Amino acid sequence: MSELDADLRTDANWGTPASYIPELARVDPAQFAITVVTADGKIHSAGDSDTRFSVQSVTKVFTLAIALGRSGDQLWQRVSREPSGLAFNSIVQLEHEGGRPRNPFINAGAIVTTDEILSGRAPRDALAEIVQFIRTAAGSDDIHINEAVAASETAHGHRNFALAHFLASFDNLKNAPEMTLGTYFHHCALEMTTTQLAMAGRFLMDAATGPRLLSTARVRRLNALMLTCGHYDGSGDFAYRVGIPGKSGVGGGILAIVPGTAAIAVWSPGLNRYGNSLKGTEALATLARKMNWSIF
Amino acid sequence: MSELDADLRTDANWGTPASYIPELARVDPAQFAITVVTADGKIHSAGDSDTRFSVQSVTKVFTLAIALGRSGDQLWQRVSREPSGLAFNSIVQLEHEGGRPRNPFINAGAIVTTDEILSGRAPRDALAEIVQFIRTAAGSDDIHINEAVAASETAHGHRNFALAHFLASFDNLKNAPEMTLGTYFHHCALEMTTTQLAMAGRFLMDAATGPRLLSTARVRRLNALMLTCGHYDGSGDFAYRVGIPGKSGVGGGILAIVPGTAAIAVWSPGLNRYGNSLKGTEALATLARKMNWSIF
Amino acid sequence: MSELDADLRTDANWGTPASYIPELARVDPAQFAITVVTADGKIHSAGDSDTRFSVQSVTKVFTLAIALGRSGDQLWQRVSREPSGLAFNSIVQLEHEGGRPRNPFINAGAIVTTDEILSGRAPRDALAEIVQFIRTAAGSDDIHINEAVAASETAHGHRNFALAHFLASFDNLKNAPEMTLGTYFHHCALEMTTTQLAMAGRFLMDAATGPRLLSTARVRRLNALMLTCGHYDGSGDFAYRVGIPGKSGVGGGILAIVPGTAAIAVWSPGLNRYGNSLKGTEALATLARKMNWSIF
Amino acid sequence: MSELDADLRTDANWGTPASYIPELARVDPAQFAITVVTADGKIHSAGDSDTRFSVQSVTKVFTLAIALGRSGDQLWQRVSREPSGLAFNSIVQLEHEGGRPRNPFINAGAIVTTDEILSGRAPRDALAEIVQFIRTAAGSDDIHINEAVAASETAHGHRNFALAHFLASFDNLKNAPEMTLGTYFHHCALEMTTTQLAMAGRFLMDAATGPRLLSTARVRRLNALMLTCGHYDGSGDFAYRVGIPGKSGVGGGILAIVPGTAAIAVWSPGLNRYGNSLKGTEALATLARKMNWSIF
């Protein structure tokens, strides 16, 4: 792990942090962290594993788990399970599909998932449930929302407002757009360290360690969705090169799962052309190859 | 297996065979076969496992293996590795992507793969190589092309001719369209039994049984592509419900792989709404669940 | 004219009123009115020409005239002048074109035009200017906004909110979406009779009658835009069958211009498959043919 | 006219000739010709009006006239009359519309029109009819097909072959693709001078001069189609800036009509960004403004 960390730092190409909000744009790209939690509960970390970063879309894994717990398979009436062939925030495909997002990991799909969790409550109550779920999963209460990031997402969130109103125009939004988006922007603004994130991912390796939050069948299905849809339009490439389920966020974090074996969190804020962490993807590719962790 | 076969036959919904050529349209839909070859080389079959069927797009797995063997990663200059968000024969996405097909399993991508194999030779020479590869993989010389099916595909192949000329207009075809398509239509018209197809898939489980035709690294990548792209626009659904790599054909066949454990061929000619075998998909879902074969 | 009115009423197919807001859906479709103002200032009417109807998108002609008067050709930096090949409220084409609407008569383009007029003012001030322009054009102060219709448009306006936020995400909106849309929904909710609307259209025939509000060059260009883009995705059909510039609204009104000769307003609330007045289009086709008014 | 010619030649920006076939690419762009035939039969020319150029898509006006003469309004079952919102050779829109081209002036629509004329005959017979129609219209037998251009179009015509096969896959092609395209490539390879082309366009001004080839009603409709669809995705811009019906070709020619008044042919091989003659468009804009010829 230390070797992996050292090797990655020798290559000067760190990618480019997300630029659509100042809070993400000004993050120093030359940072890297990795934490692996294995089935026996052991924790291995390297790099800046105590630095908090904005998890962004990685929370979509947790909100999907919560929404499935609340609504079961009825959720799939509102959102499909197919990889998205177009860019992650595209509204084109949404119209083509009659207002039913392709999967719960693109923005439109995650807005629907959040809307399902909100379910008429005040956003603060839904957020409390989401934060509590993640804290329980991670075994740590020291996980918080960065209000400045949430405010900035709201201020720069015209594309997401467009998606939410578009969903509403197809009757696929149960709450007012500003309520659902308020919840959405806040849970995307959660901050975690790689240690916290890897711990929070333990339930997805379905092993003896950590809290049991979903049934085995549902864990497998969530992992399948991460593999086919977890990296926007780079999902096929990630499956081909890395070979394990994972979910990325524009903050530079990735949660990856080796079923039965390990939960991995990596973070490096510079992104590749698909919008996924450049060094994070490299680290996972190297690790999966060295550890023989490909599921294929 | 016999139980699985019997259970499937009790449900009267067999789906609808492909209708675009008479040779496929007139096949009796109420047929089912399954063969499983395990890592120890044992063969388990049930149903009509000696009936030959048109493998159609299942050959794309073998032609991709051959093309990668011939050209290596240069192939990816001509075709991407991402799931296709639109219907399997759509020309729209091809224009959007500048003439580079999304993956080697949609028609446009498989035409490129075939074109790479043809490589200036006479179609008969390329076909001889393809057929020999599959015979070697299956350990059987009794595998042949159905000329009537190939002729019918040619006669009804306007959509594929459009794709080939479209690729040519983007300079992504090295041979004359009629040469490449002649090769393509013929290898899609191969006929196999489920026993032959499961045997031919042994090299993809990367175990001690059967001939070793690709490196472990390449086998894993091929399996990853099958998982993300193997079932047209139903790939996400197949991964979610079945959880193993597979490639379907409109003839009703599916080749599925449990890495290190088993190669499975199913066949039932009636298709579901995605164009994949209805009973075949059900059988694989049941088998994967009962045998705990999900890779997730 | 009376004959035209009588003939039209003998055919029982009145089309279907717009259904997206109750105020339009409950209008009796079996109504028809026509008013023609000729170059000598004479007014000819038939049918329900004193009934007020919701002009809806017909106001886009007037707001375009105002925006061109305020901003000149700079407006064309924000909106194109090409016919839209897709349905009138489609968001797909907007993304394809990078946030620059195809023309000022589709919803996205009219939102941009309204935004240009609003220009940092309070909506009430911009609305006062729009209403005053139309009153001056029509020579009548008895033209008002139906607040109930405006409120209903706002309540059911998710598609337009999506368009406005989408424009904002491309930096093609200068005012807050709710400000621009508030102005937009209100000027679409103007009510006029065919007499008032035909009078208001006099400046577009560029003859000696009525107020002179635009230069000859600009009038011609506005008429050209009406001809190529005035009837959503039925513009080509209207040009082919009727042969004069016109702009329709989902309230069932159409303003049509015979350059140098006549300004015509028709109204019948039932729509054809393109979203344009069914009887209104028929009436204009008949009138143009009988009067030899085609511009071609 | 001489003044117009001289003025145009002072501006050094001649645009870029079409580059997809060598025969067009190597034409010297610094050429310009214009011929105006007025309703009284007088001919006014300037520039290189005796130089023959490849008329290319301008023939689509004549083939549409012939197809309407042969098939009447039944033609509209196979092709629509709406402006195309996308680039002139796009296959995307064709799939979206179920194989019915948007209008007879985009490539797909002109292939259908040609197919309608071919109607089971040998291509040479259909071509004889097309050439004879144009010779009659022009009052000149010295109009010929450039076989080298036709051969080059065929050799580089993959995009058109794709369109033809695509139409065939939707059952919207009655003849074999190579038969219809053979006819299509040949009539596009006709060569004319501006004098010949303006003469050939006389029947579209529907005045007392020249042969009467279509009824007044049909002439008007053809002119309407030229106005809304005659300049690919620059049709709206041409209508806005020039204000008269016209049809352009990638050879740099434009035929434009002032109904009842004049038929105009311009030629300059350099194209603007829409694929229409740059100097030709400028000349028509200037002429229409000076002569007050806008139809609006």
From TrEMBL, chains A, B, C, D:
What InterPro entries does the entry give?
Beta-lactam/transpept-like (IPR012338), Glutaminase (IPR015868)
Positions bound to substrate: 57, 107, 153, 160, 184, 232, 250
Q: Which domain of life is it from?
A: Bacteria
Q: Which reaction does it catalyse?
A: L-glutamine + H2O = L-glutamate + NH4(+)
Q: Which key words are in the record?
A: Acetylation, Hydrolase
Q: What is its EC number?
A: 3.5.1.2
UniProt key word Hydrolase: yes
Q: Which GO terms describe its molecular function?
A: glutaminase activity
Which Pfam families has this protein been placed in? Glutaminase
Q: Which Gene3D superfamilies does the entry link to?
A: DD-peptidase/beta-lactamase superfamily
Q: Which GO terms describe its biological process?
A: glutamate biosynthetic process; L-glutamine catabolic process
What family does the Swiss-Prot or TrEMBL record give for this protein?
Belongs to the glutaminase family.
Question: Assembly state and interactors?
Answer: Homotetramer.
Xref: HAMAP family: Glutaminase
**What PANTHER family is this protein classified in?**
GLUTAMINASE
Q: What is this protein called?
A: Glutaminase
* Species whose genome carries this gene: Sulfitobacter noctilucicola
